[in-house]
Specification:
Blueprint: H1 4-23, H2 34-43, H3 49-62, H4 66-71, H5 74-80, H6 87-105, H7 118-126, H8 133-144, H9 153-162, H10 171-181, H11 187-200
The chain binds iron/sulfur cluster.
């Protein structure tokens, strides 16, 4: 009888290699400001990439540094990020996160996270107001190259349709399942290529299954969400 864990690892490997053949190896963009990445990820909640970039650029233009953002009147921060949506919720969240970061070490650096075990670093980031596992994993993977697998809405949808996780699995459960069955070196390309596939083919409303390179690996049935 096939070991379910081995079968799942083999299926993830097949998906990963198919996606690599289709979309290629994503180039690492680099991240020279982990605090900026954290703020950008908060700004990206419930909005598009275009709006996120616009709001982030506007925030950086409005204030000279993170201390100025932290100490500004909350309305001024909200005004600066208005184009990103939900400004009145995101502005106090960003300021609270900056206060916590500053309290930890007296500056606005997160470089010390690189020396912590991943689970500990993730717990610390998770405890920041408004920061969940997805945001924590993005910072750890993108900025520090740590083995953390972020699960956004596309990754959550595509992995469950494929049958890499149960249909009822939460994003955190998908994260744990993928991390347990995937070589860490694949986390970055797999995360980005699943997003690309989710946007281009495995769309939320109408997945284009007849054109999908993963169709023969997929557990999704027509009519299912
Ligand atoms: S076959 Fe359909 S549901 Fe499955 S991954 Fe492809 S597009 Fe998504």
């Amino acid at each position: 009888m096939t070991d379910p864990a081995l079968a799942l690892a083999a299926k993830i490997a097949a998906v990963h290699h198919r996606l690599l053949a289709e979309y290629g190896q994503p180039q690492r963009k680099g991240c020279d400001d982990p605090v900026g990445q954290l703020v950008a990820t908060i700004l990206s909640q419930n909005t598009s990439d275009v709006n996120t970039e616009r709001a982030y650029a506007s925030l950086r233009a409005a204030f000279p540094d993170w201390r100025a953002v932290m100490e500004a009147p909350t309305e001024a921060v909200a005004d600066a990020i208005r184009s990103g949506g939900l400004a009145n919720q995101k502005a106090p969240r960003i300021q609270a996160v900056l206060r916590k970061i500053h309290q930890a070490r007296g500056d606005f650096s997160l470089d010390w996270l690189a020396a912590l075990p991943v689970a500990e670093a993730r717990r610390w980031l998770d405890d920041l107001p408004g920061v969940g596992n997805k945001t924590a994993s993005i910072v750890l993977l993108f900025c520090f190259g740590r083995p953390a697998f972020p699960v956004d809405t596309h990754v959550h949808r595509v992995t469950r349709r494929l049958g890499l996780a149960p249909t009822s699995a939460s994003p955190d459960q998908v994260m744990r399942i993928i991390e347990a069955h995937t070589p860490p070196a694949w986390f970055y390309p797999l995360h980005l290529n699943l997003i690309r596939h989710g946007r281009a083919v495995c769309k939320a409303r109408r997945p284009q299954c007849s054109d999908c390179i993963l169709a023969d690996l997929c557990d999704h049935r027509p009519g299912e969400p």
